[in-house]
Design goal:
Length: 477
């Protein structure tokens, strides 16, 4: 009963303090820095308040100590003292630290002036509008959704985790969620799909997508314009923060420190954090250890290069979206020829559709090959399957149809195996893709062909000389 009375008294005293504070800060600053404060205890003339983090306490002391002194004078008199109880984050749980005695000074002070609307507009890193009803710009591309993200073995875990976060932001254990992978594999698509889903299904949540370069630029501008307080206040009101390409924070110590404090505040406040990177956290260099440890709190999921089936599905989806009918032979050819990333595959499709539209012709295998020849680099042209087949058929006086046939004649088998060997040595194509170009043979047949040629070269000097001669033809181009 006695403790309840003390807590009630603390609430009354703090409410009186808030009456003074409201008169001297903007609504945004009030919501960010004073609403999260919990009146903990009142011991005589000492008010103990609980704050979310060490950084939160330091920010209050650095920026609002005079205002807090004025509020205490009003509520408790000049003898009033303020003490902080800080919520300590140990990584996997939250606990209260022993109260820290940090008394506001009893010295004369200048009464803080309330910010004008014009000042707030100039100092803010964004044009801040109605954060309470999530009307602020989220910088999301609406075309990035889960519906048009093609799922395959290469991205199934990342897609499932992303959808789980989108359905229950900050409720799952996937906080933060880190999606990593190479260029053009769909990281940005996936994390923006999270943001778009939340915006559609959780009215009132403020979702913000920002690249690490933009975050850094805003931070630098905030320091230059003496508006760091507004910068921090803005980010600390975000419900779902999506930071793209976090690896670009490498080496930026001050920016990392600021993001560290924002991360802590959002995480402790039960807000969702989503990030992307081109590599897993363990391989990120130039990053603070304390920041890397926090990246590992939730779930890290990777995106890999799309497999053949996923590439075929992506092409199918693109043709359906464009209302174009393409023979499966062409789709399969494109899927086998472009196996690096989704972005390049979509780029080829856009070029192919444009070529067909401009020339008023049907998309067939011939047009697909011509389009690919226009967009690949010179080095890729030199080691294309078509180039290898052309050289081999000319050297052995066989037809292209012979190399793709089921013939077991030695005069056909050897050229076919040599062509497969050259394809493996001179291109980046997978074994499955190489087999496709030689009559749809499986990868085990390609392995056997490569091993056979290697064995022949080891035991037959003429064969070794012949294959090396063919290799040199490509190196001269």
């Amino acid at each position: 009963m006695f403790n309840t009375l003390i807590e009630n008294d603390a609430q009354i005293v703090w409410n009186n303090c808030l009456k003074v504070i409201k008169q001297h800060v903007s609504e945004q600053s009030y919501r960010t820095w004073f609403e999260p404060v919990i009146p903990y205890k009142l011991l005589g003339k000492k008010l103990i308040i609980q704050v979310p983090s060490q950084f939160f306490y330091e920010w209050l002391e650095d920026n609002y100590v005079q205002l807090l002194r004025k509020a205490l004078d009003f509520s408790l008199g000049r003898e009033g003292q303020l003490e902080y109880s800080i919520v300590v984050d140990s990584g996997d749980r939250v606990k209260n630290s022993p109260p820290m005695s940090v008394n506001a000074p009893n010295k004369p002070h200048k009464t803080p002036e309330k910010e004008t609307e014009a000042e707030k507009k100039v100092n803010s890193p964004f044009v801040l509008r109605g954060l309470d009803n999530a009307q602020s710009e989220s910088f999301l591309n609406r075309s990035y959704t889960f519906e048009n993200f093609i799922e395959g073995d290469c991205n199934r875990l990342a897609r499932a985790a992303s959808f789980a976060v989108a359905e229950k932001p900050s409720v799952t254990s996937f906080n933060p969620l880190m999606i990593y992978g190479g260029v053009g594999l769909g990281k940005t698509h996936l994390v923006q799909a999270i943001g778009n889903y939340i915006k559609m299904n959780f009215e009132g949540k403020f979702v913000l997508y920002v690249s690490s370069e933009k975050f850094t630029s805003q931070f630098i501008n905030a320091i230059r314009n003496n508006s760091l307080q507004d910068f921090m206040a803005f980010y600390m009101q975000v419900d779902v923060l999506i930071l793209d390409d976090v690896q670009f924070l490498s080496g930026k110590e001050k920016t990392q420190e600021t993001f560290f404090h924002i991360f802590n505040h959002l995480h402790q406040s039960g807000k969702q954090i989503v990030m992307t990177s081109d590599r897993p956290p363990r391989d990120l260099e130039g990053m603070e250890d304390r920041l890397l440890s926090r990246f590992k709190w939730g779930l890290t999921a990777d995106l890999q290069s799309p497999d053949l089936e996923t590439r075929i599905a992506i092409i199918h989806k693109k043709t359906q979206d464009e209302g174009i009918d393409i023979d499966f032979e062409v789709i399969e050819y494109l899927a086998h020829s472009i196996d690096s990333n989704v972005r390049e595959l979509e780029g080829v499709m856009i070029s192919l559709i444009a070529q067909a539209s401009l020339t008023q012709r049907t998309i067939d295998l011939e047009l697909a090959k011509r389009t690919l020849n226009h967009i690949v680099t010179e080095s890729e042209k030199e080691v294309s399957i078509d180039g290898i087949v052309s050289v081999v058929t000319e050297h052995y006086s066989v037809r292209i149809a012979d190399l793709k046939s089921k013939s077991r004649l030695r005069s056909i088998v050897i050229p076919r195996q040599v062509a497969m060997y050259l394809a493996k040595e001179l291109t980046n194509l997978s074994l499955k893709s190489i087999g496709y170009h030689f009559g749809g043979r499986d990868h085990s047949t390609v392995i056997h062909a490569i091993q056979t040629v290697n064995d022949l070269m080891d035991t037959n000097k003429e064969m070794e000389k012949e294959v090396n001669s063919l290799m040199k033809q490509f190196k001269k181009k």
